[in-house]
Design goal:
The chain is an alpha/beta fold and 239 residues long. It has 8 helices and 12 strands. Helix 3 packs parallel to helix 4. It is globular, with a radius of gyration of 18 Å.
Length: 239
């Protein structure tokens, strides 16, 4: 009998060998898994399955992973679901574009199953509220971050952040005034080793600023080092 509390993962890849492999290992970890080789059915299946995480191949016929990512982020019921891209090593531009349009993480083919499982566990952990957490609410002028509800508002308007963007904003606000290096953010937000490329951080910071709108200048760039949440508001726009 399936555990009704088990987390649900949707895998979309046009290669059946890949989906079968991932399905075998994910189910072995106790996840409820839906496998899909037809990307044209991706949104429909996602809406009915309501996954806690999506693993999405980039290069697929007819509809690419990048297009599906945009569709998922545009759907109100799926917009916050974490997304991991599967990419070929040579597709750096696709990886960056994927992060810019809403993916939370990527892993390059060929990859180790152990690494993928660690990425899956990390994303699900930071996107799932923990039992017993004390309600906390952080506010700075127009920005309100409610940890218990996992919600952010800017001037009383809800801002739709992904799980990764939420954790990134939480860390910056919690450590306000202290510089967070790119390497430190990779470790604390993504659980990456520090030698992984830091462009991932820059891409997510850019997306976060866009969503914060007029409040974006609270997030300051410390050139050559990293980022910090300002102690007082600057009139200058972020670099």
């Amino acid at each position: 009998m399936k555990d009704p509390k088990a987390q649900r993962i949707l895998v979309i890849d046009d290669e059946s060998d890949m989906t079968d492999l991932l399905g075998y290992h994910l189910r072995g970890k106790g996840y409820v898994v839906e496998l899909l080789n037809d990307p044209n059915r991706g949104i429909g299946v996602a809406r009915s399955f309501l996954p806690d995480l999506v693993i999405l191949d980039v290069m697929m016929p007819e509809i690419t992973g990048l297009q599906l990512c945009r569709m998922l982020r545009a759907d109100p019921t799926l917009s916050r679901v974490p997304i991991i891209f599967l990419t070929a090593k040579a597709e750096e531009n696709d990886r960056v574009q994927g992060l810019e349009i809403g993916a939370d993480d990527y892993i390059s083919k060929p990859f180790s199953i152990r690494e993928l499982m660690l990425r899956v566990q990390s994303l699900l952990r930071r996107s799932t509220p923990k039992d017993g957490d004390n309600p906390r609410r952080m506010q700075l002028e127009g920005i309100v971050l409610d940890i218990d509800r996992h919600e952010v508002t800017v001037h009383n308007q809800p801002v739709d952040l992904t799980a990764t963007e939420f954790k990134l904003l939480h860390i910056l606000m919690e450590r306000r005034g202290r510089v967070q290096t790119r390497e430190h953010l990779l470790v604390t937000v993504w659980n990456y080793e520090s030698d992984i490329e830091t462009r991932t951080v820059d891409t997510h910071i850019r997306r976060l600023r866009e969503k914060l709108g007029k409040e974006a200048d609270w997030v300051e760039t410390i050139r050559g080092v990293g980022y910090r949440f300002a102690e007082r508001r600057s009139e200058a726009q972020p670099a």
